[in-house]
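Example 3.2
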Amino acid sequence: MGLFSKFIGKKKNEIITNQDFWTWFAEHEKTFHQVVKSRGNIERDFFNPLSEQLNALRPGYLFLAGMLTDDTAELVLTVDGVVKNIAFVENLVQDAPALKGWKFTALKPALAIDNVEIRMGDFSFGKDNLSFYANTNPNYPDIIDLKVVHADYDANIKGQIDTGVFIFMDNYLGELNTVTSIDALQVIPKEQAEEELIPIEKLKDYLIWREKEFIEKYEGTRYTTSEDTYSALEATLEDGKPLIAVVNTALLNWDRKASHPWILAIEINYHGNKSGMPDNKTYALLNEMEDELMLELKDEDGYLNIGRQTADHVKEIYFACKGFRHPSIVITQFQERYKGKLDIDYHLYKDKYWKSLEHFNPDR
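Structure, written as tokens:
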């Protein structure tokens, strides 16, 4: 099933749903297959039309293509690690038809270390010149903060080295694992290393061990907000406009924050009065939207409403989430539902200790 509902008055050949896209692809798949197999003008005859149709469906989709065997082409649909798009590309591939001669893959898959060597200019990135260690902080024990060393590190082209390492990680660990398993990664020269270096081929085993440890620590963790205490905060912006916030102070002091490591930050732009606050009609609409949102993102399902703030024609709502897929789908649906009424945007990122929300905690 496609993620988006069809609009009334849909134009012929307009790409709105996943089914629309795959119908279009199936009409041209033989041409695309021949272009990939023959190594013809793949950009003109395949990538350009594919990019146009994918962008019509949802901006942010990227792709790779090649021959798996003499007869089977693979199309890998990727989102370049953008968390808010992962659920959509997974659903797009799930909706793909069975087409002879094609394999469709969501997100760049993990590869064996012997099959991963990235070359950029004069530099290579692989098991022969990469190593790592994990930086630990007793105050944040669940953070996976990796320091990666390239044997030929050159500070003069730091950007190129960093890019090569990140591309290597995507291919070695797989796109999804890179996003979900690592909290922070820094590429450093060998002389800056503060711990014993570990061969990069041991990284997968290390991350599996850390993930198992994390699950054992937080498995079964649930939280309900029904008896929590909330604080109303008032402040004044530099231009004199008011800021009003309501935050769950009990939740902000919870000692198991890492069990809900994904932060959903929703921004709603509205037309308000001169003070930047919503007028009565907009206030009612914002409350309606938030009430509906709470029905979709329930605390017992792993979505904790931390608080909200309103100031200067923007309302921000914050959730801490166990997972990232459902929230991205829900907010996209709300963007469609309130189109023309409220301007809704959102960010979805990993923050195991909710550091980005510490400014809301009056006890800090």
